[in-house]
Amino acid sequence: MSTLSIQSNEKDGIFYLSGEIDAHTDLSLLFDSQDDHLTLNLKGVTNIYSIGAKKWLEGVRDLRRSGKGLIYIECSEIFVEFFNISPAFTQDVRIQSFEVAFMCESCDQYKSQMIVLGNNLAFEQPTIVCPQCGTEMITEEEDVFRFLENL
């Protein structure tokens, strides 16, 4: 049984996903939607297993074939990892915001930061200051922003 939960908010039209995407994940609620585009809040997705990634990409492919648009907001760090692993995760998708882990080399503090792109693709890496010691933080993963080249 899948641990992925999909909640739809009729007020804002956003689908909120939380949990893990695995072999048992049923994405039909998303991809069978009658809307002309889907906005997915991915902040609560904690893991994507390999067969879950395959099912996700198949669903997105079917969505594109039907002419629907897809917008990702508040993408969790695991989605950012997959964006960098496979360009198929970002193909024909509009990403408005995503989460990145930063770390402080001075005091070993970690901080997740939501990066907002919105409609502006002229991206500059933000400067994040450690709340503990005031030192500039670095990204935990060296090439975390690489996927932005494919947008």
Question: What would your notes on this structure say?
Answer:
The chain is of the alpha/beta class and 151 residues long. The protein contains three helices and eight strands. The strands form two sheets. Strands 1-2-3-4-5 form a five-stranded mixed β-sheet. The chain has a three-stranded antiparallel β-sheet with strand order 7-6-8, with helices on one face. The chain is globular and about 50 Å long. The mean pLDDT is 90.
Question: Layout of helices and strands, plus pairs?
Answer:
Layout: E1 5-9, E2 14-21, H1 28-31, E3 37-48, H2 50-65, E4 69-73, H3 77-85, E5 94-95, E6 97-103, E7 110-116, E8 138-139
Parallel strand pairs: 2-3, 3-4, 4-5
Antiparallel strand pairs: 1-2, 6-7, 6-8
Average pLDDT score: 90
* Helical segment count: 3
Q: Structural class of the secondary elements?
A: alpha/beta
**How much helicity do the residues have?**
10-25%
Unreliable segments (pLDDT under 50, ≥5 consecutive)?
none
Q: Write the element-wise H/E pattern from the N-terminal end onward.
A: EEHEHEHEEEE
Order of strands across the main sheet: 1-2-3-4-5
Number of strands: 8
Classify the beta-strand content into a percent band. 25-35%
The general outline is globular
Radius of gyration: 16 Å
Terminal-residue CA separation: 34 Å
What's the main sheet like? 5 strands, mixed
